[in-house]
User: Fold this.
Amino acid sequence: MSHFDVEVLFSENQPSKAVLRLVGSLDAFALSQIEKRIQTLIRDEQKIKLVVDCGKLKFISSPGLGLFLGTLNELEKRGGKLIFSQVIHPDVNDAMSCLGFFDIFQAYNSEEEAYRHLDD
Amino acid sequence: MKRRQLLKEKQEFLKKLYIEEHLLPESTPKIPGLYFDSYYQSAQEVGGDYFDFIEIDERYLGIVVADVSGKGLESSMLMSIVCHALRSQAGLSLSPREVIDETEGLLLPKLGQNHFVTLFYAILDRKKMTLKCSNAGHPPLLVGNRITGKTHWVRPKGVALGLSRFQRITVREECEVSLNPGDFLFFYTDGVTEARNSDDDCFGRKRLETFFSETSREKIQIIHELKTELENFAEGAPQQDDVTAVYLERCA
Assistant:
């Protein structure tokens, strides 16, 4: 069974911004785990701005990619945002660039850089 | 739990039946000087692959390989929409980019926000022995020559169907590939390259390229041997995604 984990971080005084650090393989089995976390975040903070850090992500399935498309759609409607950082694993980077994700999503080399661009 | 399992099995059975009965072509095209082969294996959990050969007229043949994100019956229904939308557009234009763009226009109102479709569409010109290709977020086409064993990737740029809803400025590219004697094309879905073993490693495009650079195989064995290669690689790990492969070779 492949491993997947997601860590959600908030900085003090900034409840409308969060960083999601993805670790392992976001396959079909792991999908509901992150889907629920994202739904809770949007429910608690309608205009939330998210950095999704992929520095430790080694695989992402099609439904996983679909989840981020759906989330972007939801957040843009509400005035929120979703930015990626560290899409470095070749398989993950390839899956995203193949679909044209980088024409749609902003992506930065580091979590800090992405976080700074949440207010652009 | 037992009931849920039975329902799931029933849904998967219906999905497989629906795709195989209604969407997949009954046979590969018979064109003098060309050899076609194909392989399709539905997965239990996710996926919605399909491929098709569209007879545009006596000169042009459309070839499409597509993959709908999503699960079970839902993805099969979406695939049915893509299949019929593409068929309805294929006869109207000899520009694969235009056909893809128009198909997306028909599909968008039906596409859920977590869904997208990747699709590679090529139009074979039987007279000139060329293919005009365009792409919507699909993995690149593998092109090679059976005599030299040389291979390269053809990757026209283009976002997946569904991503145009975000209204960023994106333009899909179009390119042309010549089919000389001994040349082959391999269309596939990511179920091939993302087949995983128990260590969670993907089969990947590098292994696919290495497989196709081997020149000693008989053409009728290629798809069968690729299937065996994927099974050996997976070492019994469950197949997570549909696998689709279409092979086309110009006989030497």
